[in-house]
Amino acid sequence: xxxxxxxAARMMSGFGNTSLGRAFGSILGKVAGGFLVLLLLTAIxxxxxxxxxxxxxxxxxxxxxxxxxxxxxxxxxxxxxxxRVIYGARTSLSVSATAIAISITVGMxxxxxxxxxxxxxxxxxxxxxxxxxSFPDILIxxxxxxxxxxxxxxxxxxxxxxxxxxxxxLTRAQIVRLKRETFIEATINLGAKPHHILLRHxxxxxIAPVIVVGMLAIGDGIVLEATLGFFGLGAQPPxxxxxxxxxxxxxxxxxxxxxxxxxxxxxxxTVIMVNLFGDELIRALDIRDRIRGA
Amino acid sequence: xxHQTMTKLLSGTALVAALTAFVAxxxxxxxxxxxxxxxxxxxxxxDPVTSSNLNTATSMIYDRLVEQxxxxxxxxxxxxxxxxxxxxxxxxxxxxxxxxxxxxTAFDAQTxxxxxxxxxxxxxxxxxxxxxxxxxxxxxxxxxxxxxxxxNLLYNLGSAFMGIPSQAAVxxxxxxxxxxxxxxxxxFKLERFDIGLETVLVRNxxxxxxxxxxxxxxxxxxxxxxxxxxxxxxxxxxELKTGGVDVxxxxxxxxxxxxxxxxxxxxxxMPGTGISYMPINVxxxxxxxxxxxxxxxxxxDQEAIVASIYKGVGAPAHNFLIxxxxxxxxxxALNVTHxxxxxxALLDEAGWTMGDDGVRMKDGAPLEVKLxxxxxxxxxVLTQVVQAQLAAIGMKADITVFDSSTIxxxxxxxxxxxxxxxxxxxxxxxxxxxxxxxxxxxxNVSMWNDPEGEQLNKVAMxxxxxSEERIANFTAYHEYILSQHLMVPIYQPTTNLAxxxxxxxxxxxxxxxxxxSQTVLDMKPAE
Lengths: 294, 527
Description:
The complex is a heterodimer.
Chain A: H1 2-14, H2 17-23, H3 27-44, H4 46-49, H5 81-117, H6 119-134, H7 137-148, H8 152-162, H9 164-179, H10 182-189, H11 194-230, H12 242-250, H13 258-285, H14 288-293
Chain B: H1 2-10, H2 14-27, E1 31-35, H3 58-61, E2 66-68, E3 74-76, E4 79-84, E5 90-95, H4 109-115, E6 131-138, E7 141-146, H5 153-158, H6 167-173, E8 188-194, E9 198-203, E10 224-228, H7 233-242, E11 247-249, H8 253-260, E12 265-270, E13 274-279, H9 290-299, H10 302-308, E14 315-316, H11 340-349, E15 353-354, E16 360-362, E17 365-366, E18 368-374, H12 377-392, E19 396-402, H13 404-412, E20 418-419, E21 421-424, H14 430-435, H15 451-462, H16 467-483, E22 487-492, E23 495-500, E24 504-505, H17 517-522, E25 524-525
Parallel strand pairs in B: 1-10, 1-11, 18-19, 18-20
Antiparallel strand pairs in B: 2-3, 4-5, 5-7, 6-7, 8-9, 9-10, 11-23, 12-23, 13-21, 13-22, 14-22, 15-16, 16-17, 24-25
Helix pairs in contact in B: 9-11, 15-16
């Protein structure tokens, strides 16, 4: 019984403010977390903070180097690169976050059911899920593009499927481990129904690592969104996406490098910050072993 | 035997592999890698008779009876000379002696007589529609008996679609002909064809019948040519810069400046033979209303486009034909020019009134349309400018970018409204190709099928006794097409090619109307 209260209490508090606070505790955590909060606010308030309309063309003012009034210069259509990078944050974050949310929801459901019920059901689910892992992300995206046409919806689904296996495996591993704990056996012996055990006792205890991995996956999702955008499979023009901006910038790589450099830098910095903050979160939650265990 | 042992011994280590690659690149300097023009990507066959989409490698595998020069004159090739009867009802061709196909069979009058009927019931049937029958006079003389005069016959015979294939090979390969193999009399033989990727040609060492457009009358200077399909122009450019490609065909104008700055790259600019334009699907609302179509045309500012994104290179297009064709001179009132005020008035009249968000509305529905384009910056850049110019008259256009083969399927399924496209053809019969009611979907992307149009088409295609009549008939057909607002002409690009001068030298000006076999014969490895 001591083990139960100990584990459960640590898990519950791990999800509370204390741990998030602890993640912000170190300098690295402050910098990374601060950047991400800023980026999130930028994405949310993009329409109010962009200096120009991201789609407004001024053909006679194309390929202007960084300066005033276009702080990051203009692309070949004379569109303001800064405004497009800011709006691109919106596209990148929303696609990635939506995709990972789908991935987590479906992955946790499948993983929890597989881990709890076991047997043939578990083997079927894990085989199918592992199969999705064997396809390159780009191929999955291409399949969606072929079915529903190019655009952000295909990108979102492609990213969601690409990370599905990760969350299913992670949740399943947690559930299998927790199922053997005394407090679960006690609950079963007290006559609790499976859904009660899963929702009330198993999932809450399994969620912390999933949240952290989800956080890290958002970083990967941003890169994948940029990759798909680069190949023209993501956001359709003139919607700015960091990947698509870099792709269109390649044509002007030697004439106006700022068109490709700024979105590239933003993608790189964002992903580094997401990973740094994820690491801090792992440390704060003290769950490194459990993430490895998956 | 000794060579084999050597190869086995050496093939083990990566170091040696790298060395071999280095030696190979200098030892086989008689190889060249050429990247196709983006407009030529996606050809699925090298059968000139049945295919509706051929790339320039086709002209190197096959020879034609005649060749057209840049000044529009015709030169002998497999036909040494020809004569048209005074009433235009027959043509007699004297053929070149001693010509053989890559498979060793002989080319003679019987080949021509067997070949011409193959066009019946194909997409290319219009090329030979005026030829009633072909008579073999003697092994080197052939007579075309016509069912009507055809002032355009020599043009047709000189087009890539009338390269002459080996009849023995066509029979042997059947439906696989053009994909599994292609056998002509040209300066190069087809060695490998990976659809959508690359085509490898090897020299025909028997070729001794070049046309007088080439200085080189013997075999080609290159032993092997590899044609690559690179959809993205930036990638193609980087390949040229880094030595992966020696010749780049069809460079978009916005790249010229960058390419000229490269020390080892030489750029050749030729008068263009094509138009960039925006077809309008007349069957898709709101474009079933001619006023909306006309307004769409008036929204496009061709002059601004040429001045900005093309830096003044090339010319604006105000009708569907390149300006060097006589049929491009139409009633000035029919030329499509920029007039946003009139566009607004027409849309108001059609019931599309300006909404608060800058998008016009009618019966509660916004004026929102689909604008399709192909991947590759030469299409996507122009499309985004078009999108912005349409927005200025209150039309919201949503861009979707497709690859070149998917977009044709979309057209055939009639899922499109507006599209940004380009064609490359220097004859007014392109009007028939893109607007004939018999080719709805693709190539008739406008989905236009109109009795009067079909009548004018028939007169233009078949009812002309001589060149003057043909010009008048095609001008009338062209004017009617313009009056129906089926597309918006945008831009007449120059045709540009670039090559790595450290590796190859390409004659400037190129021989003939474009980069074809005549030019390739004179192309040399760099010294």
